[in-house]
C-alpha cells in the first residue's frame, strides 16, 4: 500500500516508517504539521493515511481537522487517526462523516504490531477500526445497553471495533451462527436497522453508542 504519515513525534514517526516498510508498504510522504496534510494528500492520493490528532502549530486537533477536510476533497480516502488519549468527541466527529475507511486508535496500539497492521489493512479496504478503549468508554456510559445480555455486550463491543462475524466467533469461541443470532438480537433491542454491509453496521452501532 502507498501510505502518507502525519506525525510530529520523531521516534514514533520513524518507528511507523520502519514498521510499515518492513512489511512491504511504501511511504510516499511524511509530514509533521497540520497545514501540510491536505496538500500532501491531494498530491499523492495514497491508499491510506496515518494521522496524529494533535499536530503543530497548535497541538489541538489539527490532524483531525485535516482528516475531515481531506475526506471532503477526496471522498472515501481511508484514514487511520492516532491519539495519545481516549478522545470520545474526536472519535465521534471523525465517524460522523458517515463513510467507510475510518480508523481511530490510541498510539499505544502501534506497539501491538499485528493489531495495528490488521486495523490499517481493514481501514484501507474500506472497513472501520475503533480502539477497544474508546469502545469500552462509549459503552460504559450508555444506559440503554442495560437491555443487552453480557454476551450481547461482548459481541457489540467487538462489532464496534470493526470485527467481522468469523473473527467475533473465534474471539468468543462460539459459532458464526450464534454470532448472527446475537447481532440480530442486539439490533432489535437497540432499534438499529439490519444491514448486509459490515461497515454500515459498525457505523450504525457507533452512531447509537455516541448519540
Quick gist of this model?
It contains ten helices and six strands. With about 210 residues, it is of the alpha/beta class.
Tell me about this structure.
- The protein is α/β, with parallel strands linked by helices and 211 residues long.
- Helices cover 52% and strands 14% of the residues.
- It has 10 helices and 6 strands; from the N terminus they run E-H-E-H-E-H-E-H-E-H-E-H-H-H-H-H.
- It has a 6-stranded parallel sheet, sandwiched between helices.
- Strand 1, helix 1 (10-22) and strand 2 (26-31) form a beta-alpha-beta unit.
- Helix 2 runs parallel beside helix 3 (62-73), helix 7 (150-160) packs across helix 9 and helix 8 (165-172) crosses helix 9 (176-189).
- The longest helix is centred in the C-terminal third of the chain and has 14 residues, at 176-189.
What are the SSEs and their pairings?
Elements: E1 2-6, H1 10-22, E2 26-31, H2 34-44, E3 48-52, H3 62-73, E4 79-83, H4 88-95, E5 102-106, H5 113-124, E6 128-130, H6 132-140, H7 150-160, H8 165-172, H9 176-189, H10 198-209
Parallel strand pairs: 1-2, 1-3, 3-4, 4-5, 5-6
Helix pairs in contact: 2-3, 7-9, 8-9
